[in-house]
UniProtKB/TrEMBL annotation:
Entry keywords, A to Z: DNA-binding, Phosphoprotein, Transcription, Transcription regulation
Source organism (scientific name): Siphonobacter aquaeclarae
Residues modified to 4-aspartylphosphate: 56
Protein name: Two component transcriptional regulator, LuxR family
Domain Response regulatory: 4-121
Protein's GO biological process: phosphorelay signal transduction system; regulation of DNA-templated transcription
Keyword Phosphoprotein attributed: yes
Domain of life from the UniProt record: Bacteria
TM annotation in the entry: none
Domain HTH luxR-type span(s) in chain numbering: 144-209
GO terms of molecular function: DNA binding
Length: 213
């Protein structure tokens, strides 16, 4: 079964070009293309739920940043990757905190977009070299802070493994627990750290000193 992808971008030519490109990738199918967040909501509300949603940030009517909380509530299983021309460090970090699992610049090569889709499908997130650089910059000493989180030993062990490139299934094997138990750890840690994605959790873990780079 192919992985379904949706595109949300107000630039029609860009969206159509991306749609044609993704249709050429093996195992991917474009479910819908929307020109803004409002159109995206309408598509999802009639039952079109993509596995991966590629989201632009700067759009009229309802921009990408406004879409992220709505998607967390109404399409939590959909993994969102930001595709934007915006290189602002603060906005990149904010989008990750709001639930995006990857961030790719519009000037990227088709091979990088393909890699991003594959890693999001297989691992649940994508750390591009650019995203990694911006996250490291956001963690410089002046931005670090002491953590207020009360995590037990099992949650800390889960957190450290979740900050690696292991899948959740592999983390379950490492901890000798069931995947459902790992899902429980994830939900508890997300709630305690007030984050909405694995990438956001890793970012906060490093910023708070719970995990070292």
């Amino acid at each position: 079964m192919k992985t379904t992808v949706a595109l949300v971008d107000d630039h029609t030519m860009v969206a159509e070009a991306l749609s044609s490109l993704i249709q050429q990738f093996d195992d991917y199918d474009v479910l819908f293309v929307a020109e803004n967040g409002r159109k995206m909501m309408e598509s999802i509300q009639v039952g079109l739920l993509p596995d991966i949603l590629i989201l632009d940030l700067n759009m009229p009517v309802m921009n990408g940043m406004a879409c992220l909380p709505w998607l967390q509530e109404h399409a939590p299983a959909t993994r969102v990757v930001i595709l934007s021309m915006n290189e602002n460090e603060e906005q990149i970090v904010r989008s990750i905190r709001e639930g995006a699992v990857g961030y790719v610049l519009k000037g990227c090569r088709p091979s990088e977009l393909h890699q991003a889709l594959n890693e999001i499908r297989d691992k649940g997130f994508y750390y591009s070299p650019y995203l990694s650089e911006q996250l490291v910059r956001s963690m410089r000493p002046g931005n670090r802070h002491d953590h207020p989180y009360t995590l037990n030993e099992r949650e800390l062990n889960f957190l450290r493994l979740a900050c690696s490139d292991l899948t959740y299934a592999e983390i379950a094997d490492k901890l000798c627990v069931s995947p459902r138990t790992v899902d429980g750890y994830r939900e508890v840690v997300f709630q305690k750290m007030q984050v909405k994605s694995r990438v956001g959790m890793a970012l906060e873990a490093v910023r708070s000193g719970l995990v070292e780079l």
